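ok so i was messing around last nite and threw this chain in just to see what happens. nothing serious, just curious
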Amino acid sequence: MDSVPGDTARPMNRRAFLRLVGLGALTVSSASLLAACGGGAPPAQAPAGQPTTASAGGAAQPTQAPAPAGAPTQAPAPAAGGAPTPTPLPSGVQVGNQSEGQAAAGQIKVEFYGGWTGPDGLTMKDMINRHNKEANDNIFVTLSIYDWDTMFAKMVAGFAAKTPPDMAGAHHKDIPQYVAKGIIQEMDQSFIDNSGIDPNDVVGTLWQDQIINGKHYSLPLDVHPMCLYVNLDLFKKEGIDPLKDPPTTREQFLDYAKKLTKTDSGGQVIQSGYPVAQGTWPMYTLWWTILYQNGGAFATPDQKKAMLNSPEGIEAAQFVQDLVYKYNISAQGIIDSDKEFLTGKAAMYMTGPWWINGFSKQEGLNFETIEVPMWGNKKKAVWGANHVLYMLKTGNAEKTAAAAKVIKWISDHTGRGGWADSGMVPARKSLWPVVQDLPHRAAFMKAFPYMQDELFPNTHFQEIFVYTKQSPMMIAMQSMMSPQDRRKPEDALNELAVAVQKVLDKGNA
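result:
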């Protein structure tokens, strides 16, 4: 989901946040993800043998028991104008094993973990099943998909039990912490030479970022900046054509958002001009984008000093909070902002290319993608990230060699008819011409020059931020956006900066 990381982190108020700080519980390590962490319990597991379906937001739905056979389902809430809200399609990903069939006698079995719980996970599932049928390399790949946090926890637990997967996917920022734990297998020069990738063909610094202490640990797969999705039908009702006259400034964005926001007779927002999540992952990416548009930064380039509580960062957070509580262009308390756009209850929404297929399949949703507005005041910027593939240290040379072949096969199929069909843009620039004309891709391609990669590779990255469970970043965001708290952005970011500085002071040791 990016593989859409789901909006499943439980909101936490300031008092709970301060209690965590006082207990020294701000550190969220990979190992601690095996249990409840940061004050929020992990999603309950489905009963043994029962698959868990990823939600509209892309993450596994927690704790809700299935309805008895024949039980009526709850009617959807009315949308603006009294029409029933469309039922959202789930991402379609069944958490767990994605592979069809079983390995034949004599085939090498390769275990592959990924966190693509959004619609992009279906593309990876199709690719792996295609590999198993067509590659003729005597390798059978079992792909297992979980949300990213659960996947990393399983990976660490498997390594401790001497049963790790053979290969996995991640965002490039995740790699250093697992290299430091001794989990990831170095890619030797022979593998790099035979990968078919020219380092000069890889976008940005993604190739160099995978070199740690002179050794290479992963292969770039894709790049995914965010863009603004617009509901063309909702715009048309207001007489606005966002393709001919897109919102390019903060003022124009607010003007459109106010016109596109609808309330019921009691003044409650039932159609958001822009759905602001209650301090969950999509809200953080919005704040991140505006922070950098303001000319700010999360930390100094040498990663030694936290900068997120600068005037630029505080102004960005205040604007995001004001979208809900001052400008009233978003419903309060939104947890799954993906679902708001998916069901036609939001007119504009910033997210990544992994939702292209999911939104395209939603009946009645007529949308397009455009570049994000200049919400800030200094320069163009937008949140972005990327995926990489890597091998685990299994101690099994045969399986490691097989995993290397599978990684190369996936890399060779990142253009049309392969991973690019997920909505992601290949990390290899030479493949861009074959994907740039695919539907809804143009705005993402335009964003590359000003994409601001999420955070940075750091050995202690998860002590700052994890996707679906409580972490200092998410707790701070929630404290600002929660209707029960609505904490002053300056106070929340100052406290977050203290926690981040403690992590930065550790360096990459």
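not much to say yet. DSSP finds 17 helices and 16 strands in the chain.
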